[in-house]
Amino acid sequence: MKLPIFIADAFTAQAFRGNPAAVCLLEIKLDEDMHQKIAREMNLSETAFIRKLHPTDSFTQSSCFGLRWFTPASEVPLCGHATLASAAVLFHKIKNVNSTLTFVTLSGELKARKVEDGIVLDLPLYPAHYQDIHEVKDLIKTAIGDTMIQDIRYSPDTRKLLVRLSDAYDRSFLENLKVSTQDLLQIENTGKVRGLILTLKGEPGGQTQAFDFYSRYFAPWVGVSEDPVTGSAHTVLSSYWSQELGKKEMRAFQCSSRGGELAISLRPDGRVDIRGGAAVVLEGTLTA
């Protein structure tokens, strides 16, 4: 078996920043367990598998494909950065002739549109509801100790817990915060939480570029200790910060060691456009 495979860094214009994802192009149907084996071998936060929906489809000519995402540990229902990486491979390496691609996924149909300064993903927008701190205080204490908290929300659609840090903190505090993830699986093992978002209100531009909000994302429940830049987390963050700031257009920065920028636009149809760049850093053939 020989499969074309790529690695693309998403939500960045520069190689070795943003969030890397492996992208596999499937000319043939894979044995079901092979997806997970390949994802484990690639050992990135996500490996994406693009498949043709009909035997006559072409990766260069067709505009609609199936798409699945796997962490090294499990399949996930939504991954923004691996969708961006998949679109970048099709647009820039395979030279797909269409300006918009549609991916059929576990989260419905997702569209990726090629624009002058990147790729725009049309993603679901997920509301986050008030969360009683007493139900999650052990989880939060384990993760971030005595760090001051401003707000806690929960997204039942994505099973992500959003923890907003106090406005007294700045970006450097979030970047340098030591987050303990190794014990979270013992603290929260009910299945309610599958991802932890830490977020902070942005700062006005001065010497540095202005961002509306910052975040970091942790998902040890699916085998990802910290994810560098997370599109799916921003389907929740976009909803939350749009309400908090009264804005439909926002710029976000995910403060991992690699870092990544996202341009956010809430749509009239209740979804969200998230724009980012991508750099393809590796292409080859997987043999098995």
UniProtKB/TrEMBL annotation:
InterPro entries: Phenazine_PhzF-like (IPR003719). Keywords: Isomerase. It comes from the Eukaryota. Belongs to the PhzF family. PANTHER family: PHENAZINE BIOSYNTHESIS PROTEIN, PHENAZINE BIOSYNTHESIS-LIKE DOMAIN-CONTAINING PROTEIN. This is Phenazine biosynthesis-like domain-containing protein. It comes from Pipistrellus nathusii.
